Amino acid sequence: PWLRDCSIPVSLQVKGVTKPVLAVLDPLRGGALSSVPQALVKRWNVPRILPPDLKPEWGGDNGGNFLVTPDGIAIVGGNCSRAMRRFVAGMGYGGRLLTVDMWWRFGGGGGGHVDEVFTVLPVPEEPNGYVIGVADPAMGLKLLGEIKRERIVDELRGLLSSLYQLRHLYPQSFSKDEAVLGMKMAEEVGKLYGALEGGRGPDYFAANLSKNLAGRLSSVIEMTIANLEKGFRALRPGKPHVRFVRLPSLLRHEDDGRGGSMLPEVVNSIILGNDVISPDPLLAPFRKKTRELLAALGFRCHFIPSATYHNQRGQIHCATVVKRSLTEFIHPQYEPGK
To answer: Which of 19, 105, 187, 269 has the most beta carbons within 10 angstroms of its beta carbon?
Structure first.
């Protein structure tokens, strides 16, 4: 299902052509996804771009998803291959490429992808015209801990109810095994809540690992933000600081010590104009906080059920390719010639 991992829509400026041209960048990941880029090229009737140094027999590029700001700075994960980064730099992003080390985030390709922690939110009223959303596990832990004890059972029942409704509506894509994973998710969240309440002993061992992980990773995320800010300052001298907006996240302690998503990750969403299409985080306080934070930026937030993606270690942005008009909307702060 990971469309964006294996096919990246790009805009090309072609010599002799006045308007930008839509194309599909194929990272040659191979495997079950190898036919997807060609299918999109055929469906959209657009060019296919093949980075010359990527070798499909070596697995192509598994670095995952690019994020691009309205002023043309690309952000990629540290597990993005050198070949891909060289190619992207040579295609117009030389001196405008920021690499984020994602070793601590559990995910595909030996580490997490950028869109599992960050998202670019265009906000024309901001000094830079955009802000960067960032998943904040400390905020998620705080929201979970603030749920009153008499409410937590109802929250977990609501979580399970949402998952069983999904199974009823989409029986072909939501299997019995995934329903079992839903039960495990509810149990995991309940145990983490118990650990926040002071639960100890073997039953709470994994939950306490997850609780302690959030504190450790919060400092790593802050350091990552500081490195990004430093990179933005170097690439945009004299420009205002880029603002980062925290969004709630809840992480589990994986067996290898990295952080994996315990709930669907709201930061892993897509932006369509003033609408954010976000994974449903399944707990009411997380929905409320996410809506409030995005509304303050001028966005409407729409939660959609996405547990199947969550169970496969990804989310909406990973699984979605948006065919955008290249000329219909131009960010008011970044019109040609400005």
So the answer is: 269
Report the C-alpha gap between 225 and 231 in whole angstroms.
Answer: 10
How confident is the model at residue 39, as a pLDDT?
86
CA atoms of 40 and 26, how far apart (whole Å): 10
pTM attached to this predicted model: 0.82
Q: Are 37 and 6 in contact (CB under 8 A)?
A: yes
Q: Is the confidence at residue 76, as pLDDT, over 90? A: no
How far apart (Å, rounded) are the C-alpha atoms in residues 235 and 73?
8
Question: Which two tokens mark 201?
Answer: 């002993």
CB 67 within 8 A of CB 115: yes
The arithmetic mean of pLDDT across residues 258-285, rounded, is 87
Report the first-to-last Cα separation within the chain, whole angstroms: 39
Considering only residues 286 and 72, tell me which one the structure prediction assigns the higher pLDDT: 286
The CA distance from 296 to 292, in Å, is 6
**Token couple for 53:** 């140094």
> Which contiguous run of DSSP H or E holds residue 140?
helix 137-145
**Any residues with CB less than 8 A from the CB of 217 and at least 6 apart, and which?**
104, 137, 251, 259
